[in-house]
Amino acid sequence: METKKYIGIWMDHSVAHIMEPKNNTIVTNSIKSEFNKDVKENALHKNENLMHNKEQHMQAKYYKEIADAIKDYHEIVVFGPTTAKDELLNLIKTDRHFENKKIAVEHADKMTENQQHAFVNKHFKLA
Fold first, then answer.
1. Are 18 and 9 in contact (CB under 8 A)?
2. Residue 116 lies in a domain
3. In this predicted model, what pLDDT tens digit does every residue of 73-90 receive, in sequence order?
4. Is the distance from CB of 91 to CB of 18 less than 8 angstroms?
5. Is the pLDDT of residue 1 over 60?
6. What CATH number is attached to the domain comprising 114?
7. Average pLDDT, stretch 92-112?
8. Choosing a second label site near 72 at 20 to 30 A (CA), which of 9, 50, 93, 108?
């Protein structure tokens, strides 16, 4: 029988910290959105419509990159302070790779790395 693989993601619209529990520790990788304050200001100076299109395109790419990084896991918890976690959930609900996965979404405020790790351990009852 295959061992269950767990993954926790703390995210907002700018960065996702992807945390995998391994051998009593947590390995963290980060994915950053390309849409940041500088890109927004630059696009806004040109055209507001352009800025919104650029934001949607870059955010979709960001969510796709996260989805690709987590598709091999059995249980997933996504948490964070913004609606980004719900937007990611909407994307992965349409992806057949996530059909038989257990996915939880929870609100959480800004957290330190240690708090994020503790949240993941508590959620999966690992510690």
1. yes
2. yes
3. 999 999 999 999 999 999
4. no
5. no
6. 3.30.420.60
7. 94
8. 108
